[in-house]
Known about the structure:
Elements: E1 2-3, E2 37-39, H1 55-75, E3 84-98, E4 101-118, E5 124-126, E6 132-138, E7 155-158, E8 167-170, H2 181-187, E9 196-197, H3 198-202, H4 212-221, E10 225-231, E11 244-252, E12 260-262, H5 265-293, H6 300-333, H7 336-340, E13 344-346, H8 348-351, H9 354-360, E14 374-380, H10 382-385, E15 398-406, H11 411-423, H12 426-431
Parallel strand pairs: 1-4, 2-3
Antiparallel strand pairs: 3-4, 4-5, 4-6, 6-15, 7-8, 9-14, 10-11, 11-15, 12-14, 13-14
Helix pairs in contact: 5-6, 6-9
Amino acid sequence: MILISFLLPAATGFAQYKKITDPLTPCNGTADAVAGIYTDHTNPKYGPISLKGTAAEKAAMMKNLVAIEKFEEASRRDFKLTGCAARVSFQRWGNSDYGKNVYARYGYQLGVYQYACHVTEHVTKIIGEYRTVFRVDINPILINAGSQLRPGTGNIFFKKTATSLMWTYDFPADAMLGPGYEKNRISNPSKVSKYISESGLLAGRSTAYKSYHEDFIKLNNGSGYTENYMHGSQYDKFTEESYRWIDRHYLITKPGIPLLIPVSRKQYLQDMLEYFEIEKANFYSTVEDLLKKSATDNSDFGIQKKQTWQAHKAAYSQLYEAKKAKVKELLGNKNEEWLKLPAVVAGNTATDDATERLSQTGVFYEMENWDKNIFALYVLNPAYFNNAPGSSVKPSLMEVQFRYELSKESGFSERLFSNFLKNFDMNALRKMLE
């Protein structure tokens, strides 16, 4: 790569800890063959390592992270690093909540900074930002993007009518609003707020929309990898000029035990009865708060808003009763075979309108009918997460991520990734879960 006029700036928001000196090796157009630089966790790019916790927790986290660092180093025993500077760092990201157990979330990162040949000085410089990175996330968050709340919960949208405005109401779906909300959302959250859909697990982990279900199975069973294309697509036709930026993910799990188990239709319908009471309380609480805040607004628009909210209160009352009656009817009239089937619900785009929510209640789809934007629902598997809790820093599962680049100017990235595929010991990570 030729550095056109300046280096990309280093990531902002942190004080520089220790700068790696540019190699300044003479070059002509490319720096891909220049000897690489590797620094371990004792020389991170930004500040000293901060693993928050007790002394015992910090020691246990450091032991696990150093072990992962050694696995990566061993994978490059016979590999020559060129065209980049690779820097190790450790970090703690808070906690992950796996049902009844809370685990520390922390991880290892190898950020890979490409060399560039300066266009006027003709010497090798280090680009200040990385696009190639290898990470191991211990006790990762299972939902990477968006809310864990499933479609049909936490919001209601009323379309504009002749007598009311179009309006969306957003409110919590995990517990009733009020003095006990913060306590209850943690200690006794609604069952629907703990649902995880297939698409939720795949968010940020796969763009292979033609094989979403297969990719979900790989992650849920810890049996393979998925790829999320940051630039380009699995389904593109590539040429020598193509640039691809790909995020590969593996979930390292205990053998033979899936992370998630399906929600049955019966469980879903029963859980929705619980949710309707939360939705009712939080909807009315939200509307009353809006009315209170607008009590003195007597402008034409203010009056119209207040009339709309009052109209929606009446409309919601009928919707609530109809949904509740329909769910009870399904639970009472459907046979056990139907009730035991998986709960697959419509996506957000199918249920944004309040009147459509009623028609969607009790409608379940085929598991792989992805063209209708549907989601099979799951919950954490008690057999996986609720055995012995262990210490808060004990690895319960891990996520391995390798973000790599493929192009004529990204040889360093492709070589590192190829070496990883051949030589990194995934089984060593699995043994850390024992």
